[in-house]
Amino acid sequence: MLNLKYLLVCLFLCTGFYSCFNNNGSGMNKPLAISKTNDLILVAGKNLWEGITGDTFRYYFESPFPITPNPEPIFNIRYFTFEQIDAEPLRRQLRTYLILINLSDTSTGEYKMFRSDLGEQKYSEMIKSGVNLMYGRDKWARDQLIVYLTGNNIEDLNKSISSNFSRITEKIYAHDESQLQAATFYSGENADLQNKISRDLGISVKIPKEYLQALYLENENMIWLRRDSKKSIINFIVSKIENKDVLTDKMQLVLQNINKFGKLVNADTKGSVLVANVKDMPVLEFTRSINGNEANEFRGIWEMTNDFMGGPYIAYLIENKITGDNIFFFGFTYGPGEDKKFYLQQLMAIAKTIDFTK
Prior knowledge:
Elements: H1 4-21, E1 39-43, H2 46-49, H3 52-61, E2 76-80, H4 82-87, E3 96-102, H5 109-118, H6 120-129, E4 133-137, E5 145-151, H7 154-184, H8 191-201, E6 203-204, E7 212-217, E8 222-228, E9 233-241, H9 250-262, E10 274-277, E11 284-290, E12 293-304, E13 310-319, E14 326-334, H10 341-351, E15 355-356
Parallel strand pairs: 1-2, 1-3, 3-5
Antiparallel strand pairs: 4-5, 6-15, 7-8, 8-9, 9-14, 10-12, 11-12, 12-13, 13-14
């Protein structure tokens, strides 16, 4: 359990830190921050970047996104020194920065900026409390996130990177969420399909306008939607699993439903069906909350039997605590030679809109 005093100090420091960033003039006079989802600007001294600290940072923040057939980094990292950021105004108009600070080296530009932004009183409070992670917003541009990560020395900073990786990742994902939703639904929503799913399945879900119905099985409470382009095919199915059909083993239930659906997928090779590959790649499981409903998230690889087609998938079981029913969401992509991470993130953005209507 978190120490109450420590938690209050964290809240105090973070709240004050946000206000520091807004002292550079009116927010409306600042440009809108620019960059793509998953972009992360690292600001650190050259000695940190080229040493063990840089290796530690890359190990975590450029680790593979779970799960894609070919490794794709979690973040697209661009590195600058403080001097490079300070010298070029355009480099201060990006959306997401992570700044590494060795508190024992008070001569660096990033240390001086951090101490100035925080102010002497809050800096002293931070040192006393041992807090090593802080967030700021809109320092140079609107819709901007600044992550300050500190350590008392090099060894302490390396530990800070590893221990804070998960919470920093979640913070950046949350910051990118509005941009990801905008990219996913840039063309609007398919109101007809949304109304149909709500009426027939009792499920509320936002569907991007360019998705079309591929198959609807009323007796199975299931609909299959897909979006085809020259580079890729993105699919997802939404189905309601009634309480009487729910298994205790959630992963078994998901794999069972993937393989059940996979028999409906056509392929060039006769007799080929879509299955979840559980032999060559792991199935990763996470616990989530979607619109207040408990959800289990699964990531893995699908393939066509007796064929060479395959790709990543993401699946959810979203439970209605009142009725015991579950919504089954299965999204999968196919795009030979294409990166898959952003497609998976778009499917995740769709899944996050799911809720029960009855």
